[in-house]
């Protein structure tokens, strides 16, 4: 129980007014997506943590993420809610704004449809894009974006 309160305190301090993206740290597609989000996050909305990391696992436990969801991207808005799969991807695109915000029109589709597409890509991501031996180490200039 003490760990949960420590995580809650950490999240409140570290990610205040930030949204946390939990991602597969060994997936090349996911890594490319994170790099894309960082490049286009003009409002500095997001912070990142790999699902495989201790902190990623602790955050998932803290917010009550089902273990079955840990094979997808998770967007956590501290104190509000968390989203996974296509819903997380569409909310991230919406928060990026600009031309990417138009992707939010797909939010009107049922999650069953958008998650089916998401699941197909997720199922094949290692085959199509490859996998790393370990999570990426952020460069010094990107370190502040990672928890």
Automatic annotation (TrEMBL):
One of its GO terms (molecular function) is protein-disulfide reductase activity. It comes from the Bacteria. Pfam families: DCC1-like. This is Thiol-disulfide oxidoreductase.
């Amino acid at each position: 129980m003490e760990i949960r309160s420590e995580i809650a305190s950490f999240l409140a301090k570290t990610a205040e007014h930030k949204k946390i993206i939990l991602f597969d740290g060994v997936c090349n597609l996911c890594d490319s997506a994170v790099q894309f989000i960082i490049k286009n996050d003009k409002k500095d909305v997001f912070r990142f943590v790999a699902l495989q990391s201790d902190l990623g696992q602790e955050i998932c436990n803290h917010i009550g993420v089902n273990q079955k969801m840990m094979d997808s991207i998770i967007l956590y808005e501290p104190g509000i809610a968390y989203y996974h799969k296509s819903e997380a991807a569409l909310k991230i695109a919406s928060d990026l704004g600009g031309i990417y915000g138009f992707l939010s029109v797909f939010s009107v589709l049922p999650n069953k449809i958008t998650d089916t597409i998401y699941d197909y890509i997720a199922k094949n991501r290692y085959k199509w894009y490859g996998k790393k031996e370990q999570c990426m180490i952020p460069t010094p200039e990107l370190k502040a974006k990672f928890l």
